[in-house]
Structure formats: C-alpha cells, structure tokens
User: Which sequence fits this backbone?
C-alpha cells in the first residue's frame, strides 16, 4: 500500500508516527511544499492520502485526486475511528479552546481519565495508545480539521459561528459545511450541544441524527474570574456537557469559577500608570474584536487592531467602536486603511506601520483608567492566525514601556 502524508507540520509528524506503527510494511511518502513546489503533482499515484489541516482541502489537485477515486483522509478521521472511550468534539468560530479547557479541567479535578488535544496544540492521534474504555477525550476541532471527514464524535459541541477564514475557504458556505461535519455522521444515540441564539450553530446542529441540547447562558449561576459575556456562554456550554457526563454541579462551578483564562484571549498583560493592557491577539475577526470591546462596559478604551485581511466586513467592529466608549483606534497591518474606512471617524483613528509603534502611540495617548486592548480583528500575516507570536510581541512591548 502506498500512503502519502500531505503536509508535514505537527499533525503530519504525528500521522507519520501513527502510520509506521499501524502499517509497518506500507510505503510512506511525505509531501510538503518545503520539499518542492511540485509536491501536489503525484497525488493520484497513491492509494491513500492523509491531508494535514494546513493544506487547503479545496486545492484543485486534491479535488482532482478525489474525483479519480483516491482515498483522502486525515489524522482527525483516524483518531475518531480509532479512539476508545468517549470523544467530545468542540467547534465554533471562537471559544473552542476555552470551552474545551474548562471541560477537561473539571473532569480532571473530578478524578476522571481525561485528555485534551486537537487544534489546541497536541495532535489528537497521539492520544490513541493511551485511551481506555473509560477515557474521555476533549478534542478542539477547527474547520480545516473537520473538512472532508466521514465520521463524527459521540458528543459534539457547537459554539457561536460567524464568518472566518474566508481567505482560505472559498465561501462562508464552505466554512459552514466544514463545521457541519462535526454532526453530519452522528447516530441516533449521539449528542450535540449547541448555542440556540446563534443561527449558524442552530443550523449546523439540525444536521445531527442524535439528541439535540440547546444551551442558554441566561441563568448560569457563576461569577467568572475572566471578563466577557462570551466567556459566560463558554462556561455554560462546558457545564451542560459536564452535567451530561455525570459530574457534580458543585465541582463544575467550583473549578469554572476559579478559571483564570487562556493566554492571548482577553488576558490582562500588565498595568502601567493605571492603564490596563489586555492581550486579545486570538481575536482574529471583526465579531470577536467587537465582543472584546463589549467585555468592559463603562470603561474608556483604546483599541489596537489590524493585520492581514481575510475578506471581512468590518461593520461589526465599526458598530462596537461607536457603542463601547472607544476614544482612540490605532491601526497597523495591510488592512489598516480598510478598517479606517469602516470605522469612519477620522479624528478617532491613527495608523502606523508596526505593532511596536501602535502600542507606544496608544500608551502615549492613554489617560489613567484607560483599557488598551490589542484585539486584531484579522489574521496576523500567515495563512493561519499566527496570534501567539503577535501576542508574545504585544506582551513584550507593553511590559517594556518606559514610565511616563
């Protein structure tokens, strides 16, 4: 059997380890653009191709290979087919990492045999040797990991969905279709938890043949240590799943209320001269940047935004700037002029050439009590959201600012 691994990043390497154990006699070939620009030309010569999420599913060479009968699969599909125990798949546009982490943390504190992997960092396929019949795997699933798979997890979690990654997905429909795979192959005894106040989450959930559980955060009885109504929704979703998994509500609320948040997700970076710096570099579309601004009602805010454009409509960000007491917007990146036009208040906007200059200008013009939010509302500069590098850069610049 001739097997190709398409893309050799973290998931590609994990796939290689898996295949060498499962098919020791197979002929294994690595195809990656770093080994030559013609890496896609021979797809049709393989029996099976394992696509890594970093390689777009809609590439013409991949679609041609599928039409010619080549089996295209992925490490995500291999994991879902081979995992023992219970698999909880978490998707949505934002909030996946926070919700998955909350579920995992509570299960761990409750003494359950639990694991977390997927888009959050560790390739899920690496978990397979450790799993037992009582294991619970919490897997964060991006649209790129879900695209093209032909199986779904026993428990699917669908958070809010809105346009994202439109520089890679051809259309929003394609993005939504990828998300739909998290439930499309569920059976009658499977479960889907979804956000009923988000029309796309609700729409995706209807594709499931399993039990559908609408989760509202309206009366969720917990005081969080992290800001934002979106995090209350994430916590309520986690609590609903944990209740289904027979975890004590007291234990759930105890662990969730003490959760301090994840890096780069509306996280307090530092305070200087009574000015608070919040790092929200994982906010890579206008909707999440708007949510970040709404997370500090009544506070005077300075927004730092910009990056690589992904064909977004910046109206949600414009509306939030006008509504949420934002007195200055500092923009950098290739889409700074597009955001400036969308915001529409010339006197409110300053453009510059780098994040370093943006942070320094924001601090120079800040007043005591201001909240400076780095919430890009766009990709940083790569095909995928290189938010961690930008987040680290923001923290470094903010903490090194000289006192005025």
Assistant:
């Amino acid at each position: 059997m001739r097997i190709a691994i398409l893309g050799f990043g973290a998931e590609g390497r994990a796939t290689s380890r898996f295949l060498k154990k499962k098919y020791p006699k197979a002929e294994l070939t690595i195809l990656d653009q770093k080994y030559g620009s013609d890496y896609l030309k021979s797809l049709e010569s393989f029996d099976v191709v394992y696509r890594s999420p970093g390689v777009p599913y809609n590439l013409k060479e991949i679609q041609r290979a599928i039409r010619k009968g080549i089996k295209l699969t992925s490490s995500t599909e291999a994991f879902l087919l081979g995992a023992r125990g219970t698999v909880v798949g978490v998707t949505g546009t934002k909030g996946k990492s926070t919700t998955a982490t909350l579920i995992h943390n509570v299960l761990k504190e409750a003494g359950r045999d639990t694991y977390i992997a997927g888009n959050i960092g560790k390739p899920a396929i690496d978990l397979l040797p450790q799993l037992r019949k009582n294991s619970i795997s919490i897997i964060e699933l991006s649209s790129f990991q879900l695209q093209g798979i032909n199986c779904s997890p026993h428990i699917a979690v669908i958070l809010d969905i809105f346009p994202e990654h439109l520089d890679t997905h051809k259309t929003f429909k394609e993005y939504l279709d990828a998300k739909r795979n998290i439930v499309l192959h569920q059976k009658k005894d499977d479960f889907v938890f979804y956000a009923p106040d988000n029309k796309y989450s609700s729409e995706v959930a209807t594709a499931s043949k399993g039990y559908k559980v609408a989760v509202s955060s309206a009366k969720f009885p917990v005081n969080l240590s992290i800001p934002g109504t979106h995090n209350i929704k994430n916590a309520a979703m986690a609590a609903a799943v944990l209740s289904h998994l027979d975890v004590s509500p007291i234990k759930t609320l105890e662990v969730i209320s003490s959760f301090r948040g994840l890096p780069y997700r509306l996280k307090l970076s530092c305070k200087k001269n009574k000015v608070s710096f919040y790092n929200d570099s994982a906010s890579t579309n206008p909707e999440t940047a708007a949510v970040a601004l709404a997370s500090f009602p009544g506070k005077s805010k300075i927004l730092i935004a910009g990056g690589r454009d992904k064909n977004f409509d910046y109206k949600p960000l414009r509306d939030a700037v006008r509504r949420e007491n934002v007195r200055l917007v500092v923009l950098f990146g290739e889409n700074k002029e597009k955001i400036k036009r969308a915001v529409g208040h010339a006197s409110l906007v300053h453009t510059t050439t780098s994040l370093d200059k943006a942070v320094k200008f924001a601090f120079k013009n800040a007043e005591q009590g201001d909240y400076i939010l780095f919430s890009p509302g766009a990709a940083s500069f790569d095909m995928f959201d290189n938010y961690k590098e930008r987040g680290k850069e923001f923290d470094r610049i903010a903490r090194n600012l000289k006192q005025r």
The longest helix spans residues 229-244. The chain has 14 helices and 16 strands.
